[in-house]
Amino acid sequence: MAVNGSVTQTFKILFLFATVLYVNALINAKNCEDIHHYGFKESGIYEIQLNYRPVLVYCNNVDDGGGWTVIQQRMNGQVPFWNAGWDEYARGFGQLGENTEFWAGNELIYHLTNQCRNMSRLRVTLYGDRTPMSQDDGQFYVSDYLFRIDPADNLYTIHVQYDKNLKGNASTGWYDITSANMNPFSTVDRIHDPESKCIRKYRLGGWWTKNCGVTSLNGDYNPKEYGNGYGMFFMLLGQHVIHPRMTRMMIRCNQ
């Protein structure tokens, strides 16, 4: 009995030690890649540490090996996006979830994209096209880019590049989201686009626009017009504009 008791006690100590290591791992998780690495394989809402404070994020652990932090998601237009102010975009808004609409926040995006040894990988996923008579409705498109943004004192300026080695069927590296490279972020209350009407009249904000540009995934979901630069749109394959039904943007470090 003494031997069995000793074995039981040893097992309890080992279990407690493993539990402490497990909890410490979670406490030290800096992003969804860490969450995935520590054994959490389900997509969902998790807590990470950002500058020594807890932050909730939505992790996609399904696509392409998992470990993605979802930074933008639009499903049905219930959240306007285009008219949110600078501070709202900095903090983030909406509700985290698998089928909800939200912006994770420029502060979070800045810190996550600057954790990486190299630039982070941005994956943009698009579904459908609400443009009348579109042949792209019902289609899925996805493309990956190299991506990071600057801090607030540099206006969350975007750095985004096309890499032919990354997968995708939405872009060719020309006349796409990479056209926004080096643009500062604009919102309805802080416009850094030389054409102010792009943000307010065409309802493209908040986004990295310059003379409106060729993509704005945070624009008005139900624009005044389709195909004429209004609202949420994406230049598909550098050829024609689509107004997606659903969008998702997510990031992880580019290995």
Shape: globular
| Share of helical residues | 10-25%
- Can you identify the CATH superfamily? Gamma Fibrinogen, chain A, domain 1
**With helices defined by DSSP (H or I, 4 residues minimum), what is the helix count?**
5
Strand percentage = 25-35%
Mean pLDDT: 89
Task: Outline the low-pLDDT stretches.
Answer: 10-25
Structurally, the number of domains stands at 1
Largest sheet: 9 strands, antiparallel
Spatial separation of the terminal alpha carbons:
53 Å
H-E string: HHEEEHEEHEEEHEEEE
Query: How many individual β-strands?
Result: 12
Classified by CATH, the class is Alpha Beta
Secondary-structure-based class equals: alpha+beta
CATH architecture: Alpha-Beta Complex
Set out the fold topology.
Elements lengths: L1 H26 L4 H6 L6 E7 L2 E8 L7 E7 L11 H6 L1 E2 L7 E2 L2 H8 L6 E8 L12 E10 L8 E4 L35 H4 L14 E2 L16 E4 L3 E3 L3 E8 L2
Antiparallel strand pairs: 1-2, 2-3, 3-5, 3-12, 4-5, 6-7, 6-12, 7-8, 9-10, 10-11
